Amino acid sequence: QVKLLQSGAALVKPGASVKMSCKASGYTFTDYWVSWVKQSHGKSLEWIGEIYPNSGATNFNEKFKGKATLTVDKSTSTAYMELSRLTSEDSAIYYCTRGDYYSSYLYVMDAWGQGASVTVSS
Amino acid sequence: DIQMTQSPTSLAASVGESVTITCLASEDIYGSLVWYQQKPGKSPQLLIYGATILEDGIPSRFSGSGSDTQYSLKINSLQPEDFASYYCQNGLSTPRTFGGGTKLELK
After folding, report:
1. pLDDT digits (tens, 9 = 90+) for A71-111
2. Within 13 Å of residue B3, how many CA atoms lie on the same side as its CB?
């Protein structure tokens, strides 16, 4: 079955960067988008951006441009997100998701990783 | 950006009751509406897409409706496992915006 296995929790200092991973299995990695979603404690979901592994094409929420960098390693079916210049506002759970166009006008995140907690603290 | 506004933000109900959650888009999203359920400490899970289509394995007590800018999620005969948070998502365009969420609690 489709699985997205994310890297573990991270405790990082303000101003530093963190890179998290999302290893996909159970489907053809290059046929689907990978979206990343942020959930601050007790809050709603916020879409960061997405990458299409086959081409490396990306789309970003303007809010996260310059903050998040998305990459993939097709050889290991793994997607990565790096967050830079971290502040306390970046403390959150980050999810990777499998994204698919169910039609030309309908994008669905139909599988989610277990989430990776990032805590920014000195 | 398309804004998604959910109501209510929280809702208390009893097992066996029916509830409805609404989601209002700031512009017409042509039925490209997705609902997710998130249980405490877990990842969100796909419930409904295309406003009305139930994801495989989702019980039929869940249903979605709506068009244009107004959408609803109805849960009939609430079961203990349904007490969770629910989010709608704009599936039409980027940025892929979510509603603020509705927390369904046991009365």
Report:
1. 999 999 999 999 999 999 999 999 999 999 998 899 999 99
2. 2
